[in-house]
Design brief:
two-stranded antiparallel sheet; alpha+beta; about 110 residues
């Protein structure tokens, strides 16, 4: 019996580390025999999927290791994945930087 906090583990095709589905992007080969790799945002697209941490480091490792072609039956076009990770890094980076400047209230100052 699974607990609510337990999620299936997936392996990143870049760094080969395991992570939960919520930490990783699901990637699929493009429709219609396209060689493009597409990010499956809702994790519902048909076909074989591969998993990747949304980081430039893991993307670079996956490209270097030619992991996309092996995991997704010859798919090689990673432009969509690169755009998603770059956009995600910018979107994530801004709030995190702003949040670190806010001091939490501990109540001990009074």
């Amino acid at each position: 019996m699974q607990h609510l906090g337990d999620q299936p583990q997936r392996t990143c095709i870049g760094c080969r580390q395991k992570g939960s589905r919520s930490e990783l992007l699901r990637l699929v080969a493009g429709a219609g025999g396209s060689s493009a790799v597409v990010v499956d945002e809702r994790r519902r697209m048909a076909g074989r999927g591969a998993w990747l941490h949304p980081s430039e480091k893991c993307l670079a490792l996956a490209v270097k290791r030619r992991a996309f072609g092996r995991a997704l039956n010859g798919a090689t076009g990673t432009a969509d994945v690169e755009r998603r990770i770059t956009a995600g890094m910018e979107a994530v980076g801004t709030p995190v930087a702003a949040a670190t400047t806010v001091q939490p209230e501990s109540g001990s100052e009074n």
